[in-house]
Design goal:
Elements: H1 2-8, E1 11-14, E2 52-53, E3 56-57, H2 59-65, H3 68-75, E4 88-91, H4 101-108, H5 112-118, H6 120-133, H7 142-171, H8 181-190, E5 192-200, E6 211-218, E7 223-232, E8 238-249, H9 251-268, H10 273-280, H11 295-303, E9 311-313, H12 321-331, E10 336-346
Antiparallel strand pairs: 1-4, 2-3, 5-10, 6-7, 7-8, 8-9
Helix pairs in contact: 5-6, 11-12
InterPro entries: RNase_H-like, RNase_H-like_dom_plant, RNaseH-like_sf, RNaseH_domain, RNaseH_sf
Domain RNase H type-1: 213-274
GO molecular function: nucleic acid binding; RNA-DNA hybrid ribonuclease activity
Length: 349
Amino acid sequence: MQNKLKVEKHIHWKINSGTCSFWWDNWLGVGPLANFSNDSHRFNNTTVADFLNEGQWTVEKVLQQTAHIMVANILSTQFQYQQGVSDQAMWKLNTDWKFTCSSAWNDLRDTIDHIFNTGHFAAHIWRFFAMHAGINQDHTNLTSLIMRWWSTKYNNEYAVYKDNYKLLATIFPYIKWFSNWRELIKQVEKCFHDIKIHKVQWQRPPEQWVKLNTDGSALSNTGRIGAGGIIRDHRGEMILAFATPLGEGTNNQAEVRAAIFGMTWLLQIGYRNLMDLIRQASRFKCKHTYREANTVADLLSKESHKMTSPSMYNSSQQLPKEAKGYYQLDIMEMASFRRRKIKRIKEPP
């Protein structure tokens, strides 16, 4: 069973006729659906085909038996239905999707060079210290890297101290720095910053008003963009939410198109006063909002990059898991606190 769990995380099932397990096989790409549900349904031998009718999803059955947070993902899953053709297990560690012993072995083994040089953690440590010591560790094996480090140590010992001392004396002239390296390090460790704390909280709209929060997301500038948003009433309760891909564009285009998409839906669901407000406005003011006050929209905009078409959410139960959590915190009027170090540091006592 232990080996089975290790292997299955590298398997993705391609749906043909729906013969794979609906609950326990990873056909959705996020792991077994059983991990997202506590219902007793997940312990039966249901297959994907049991939720299909002539190659299409049976929406009513999906809504009845699956977790609400996964419904949108399931119904948006596209596949080419091939009756009589068994579903195919795809091995994710090979580009041709076929299992090989060598790919499984490469996933399991760790070499000395990987542990102490090329591995993610080791590479981060080497990169951090090598940069300050002036050592180029790119494409260097472990033996060469250690030899280069020791040969450079004595050359850099004085240079590092001299440069750091000059830097500290220039930026913080009001502090009397020690000229001895060991004492200087002890002194630096005792210095401290002032911390500025800023309270951030989502605010409910007044009675008879609704609030639209939107956010745009760009994977790169320029690149794939998407939008997310949520409409809430004066009690903080959700009226409608959305996440939608927007194609290609800039981050500013994503922000503007997210607001337009949200206002369009406000009009469609009957909030016509929006047009009167727009006509009365001779000018408008843009103001920055901290992410902590717009977290639900921010998460929905990021969710849009996983989609190929707009997703609309009519209840909070349909929201993605993380967005639903922050939505509940907003209803409870739970505040967040931003901590920022003030640039000026203080001399140790």
